[in-house]
Amino acid sequence: MKAVLVSRLSDDLSGVALADLPVPECGEGEVLVRVRAASLNFPDLLMTQGGYQFKPEVPFVSGLEMAGEVVEAPEGSPFAVGDRVMGGAKTGAFAEFVALPASSLRPIPERLSFAAAASMGAAYHTAYVALVELGQLQPGQTVLVHGASGGVGLAACDLAKALGAKVIAATHRQDKLGPIESIVKPDATILNTGRFREQVAELTDSRLCDLVYDPVGGDVFDESTRCVTFGGKLLIIGFVAGRIPEIAVNIPLIKGFSVVGVRAGEYARRFPERGKRIAAELARLASERRITPHVDRTLPLDRWREAFEAMQRGEIIGKIVLEP
């Protein structure tokens, strides 16, 4: 089979190539899936550089999540040959076939294409854990979403709107404001460069935000500490900007807000029943057309480099999908 193989860690993708590998054999309880679509996530890029908290031993096949069809399932499995499934693990999705534990897979909601299904898992699961499980989002509350054009940011905007929140979508690029408005129809959009607290205050009649969803870090985090209302939460998703910020603890003390770290995958691993409930709720919302993953573009697997480089340059709005 063809697969995107990381044989050496590198800053310029020079250690990554499309390779011919044997089709994986199923271990006990595993299901073999013919991959029809696999979406690119920022951790996929970081793992090629050794810059992610999970550091798989090289060589490894890249790719966190995919959607496809079951081609082999053990007796007693909840899946049968031909079933449309979505899911994944920390690696392995950027290939023509992948073997995964049945517990790592879910049925694809009926209305979703393979590309949309491959784009839903990590981004929407992260958004749900952050906004609902940890943020305790309530209808009518105001959410400031940074990195709103990226996969996890756009998903957070989409989910927050579906749950009745008021959404301020933030990005650092002027050219992305229009597409964000068109795709998820937030209540407002802002540029999160410089001192954006004044814009947030104006949009909220000086009340500021109940939740701030931050996958960016750096200067955006620093200014976001000025955008959280008393009793609110600043949700830390990641550090796309590169700089891991620091905060003096007197700031959340005086302003009365919480800083909450979000590790959505670890949350599901520690609380598997909650993970199943989250997956079921997201499937319901997707089936009811209340949330819709946005696919920026699809590319064949042999154009994997184009996809990775587009992510490096910040060109993507939503998710980019590889189709083996």
Description:
This protein has 10 helices and 16 strands. With 324 residues, the chain is an alpha/beta fold. The strands form 3 sheets. Strands 3, 5, 6, 7, 8, 15 and 16 form a 7-stranded mixed sheet that branches. It has a 6-stranded parallel sheet with strand order 11-10-9-12-13-14, with helices on both faces. Strands 2-1-4 form a 3-stranded antiparallel sheet, with no helix packed on it. Helix 2 packs across helix 3 (151-162) and helix 8 packs across helix 9 (272-287). The longest helix is centred in the middle third of the chain and has 21 residues, at 114-134. The chain is globular and about 60 Å long. The termini are close together.
How do the helices and strands line up, and which of them pair or pack?
Layout: E1 2-6, E2 16-20, E3 30-39, H1 42-49, E4 60-61, E5 65-72, E6 84-88, E7 97-101, E8 105-107, H2 114-134, E9 142-145, H3 151-162, E10 166-171, H4 177-184, E11 188-191, H5 197-203, E12 209-214, H6 218-224, E13 228-236, H7 250-255, E14 258-261, H8 264-270, H9 272-287, E15 295-300, H10 304-312, E16 319-323
Parallel strand pairs: 9-10, 9-12, 10-11, 12-13, 13-14, 15-16
Antiparallel strand pairs: 1-2, 1-4, 3-5, 3-7, 3-16, 5-6, 6-8
What can be said about the biggest beta sheet? 7 strands, mixed
Helix content: 25-40%
Low-confidence stretches are none
Series of H and E elements: EEEHEEEEEHEHEHEHEHEHEHHEHE
Features:
324 residues, alpha/beta, seven-stranded mixed beta sheet, 16 strands, globular
